[in-house]
Amino acid sequence: MEKTLYWQDESLFLIDQRKLPHTIEYVECKTYQEAIAAIKTMVVRGAPAIGVSAAYAMALAEKNNENLQQAAKDIKAARPTAVNLFWAVDQVLSGLENNITAQETAKRLHQEDIAINKKIGEYGNTVIDENDTILTHCNAGSLACADYGTALGVIRAAHEDGKNINVICDETRPVLQGARLSVFEMQQENIPVRLIVDGAAGHMMQKGQVDKVVIGADRVAKGGVANKIGSLMVALAAKRYDVPFYVAAPISTFDNENNIFDITIEQRDKDEVLKINDKYITKKETQVENPAFDIVESDLITGIITEEGIKKAL
Questions:
Q1: Percent of the chain with pLDDT over 70
Q2: What predicted TM-score, i.e. pTM, was given to this entire model?
Q3: Can 218 be counted among the known catalytic residues?
Q4: Nearest to 52 by CA among 6, 19, 96, 93
């Protein structure tokens, strides 16, 4: 797999996930404002990857002698739902108080994210059986992290363990992270994968063609998890047809201060829904609701796979 992000020559380089899988191109960020723009426009996405990128954004602010308190405030305002963004910025600020540079903290978080994901994969592999077919929604793979992935990290670990697994990816409208990114990652790893439209997930479970569901999370809090829009419908179908439903997420995604129903759900641009390949699929004056995330309640979750083991939902 190509690198999701890297730091080189005092710049942050991000693979442009908007152009995958057909074009592999990197965006160079020389200022923290450019990094914020990349986060907002989904050049980089996925809670852990956003967190590491936010830390590097602070390193860019430090390099350019910006006001770091103002930079922290600006970076935290980039996207409201993924808690890793806030956590990573706070990690940098805490390091600065102890004379640790922002760049040093960012590089540490980068390496730790990779190790954490591999640990999540190890624990997740224990719930995957030989010949399992695993359904996943959105993209929680190496492209959503510094490397390896959370939900797809579990799948990678099972594949590396020699289990004869198969994967089903929801397309994940409206930005198609499942179709464009998760399928791409599985193909890169030679893991058998099929793509379905979002509305087919319940049908596949009803027909007994799904053994496990594994998704990622943008925030874990009391009452459940927030993840890409459509996750709730998958969870409800899994509950109805007795399919174990797992969430794979690092401890940095846990928000112990808020109820999941009190968090801000990001509303994104209506053109994401109105257009496909930059062409309108309905009249442009059509009214649109475009929440980026929904909430999977705790009673729908079999377990949360973390680097510290498999935990119950909060």
A1: 100
A2: 0.93
A3: yes
A4: 6
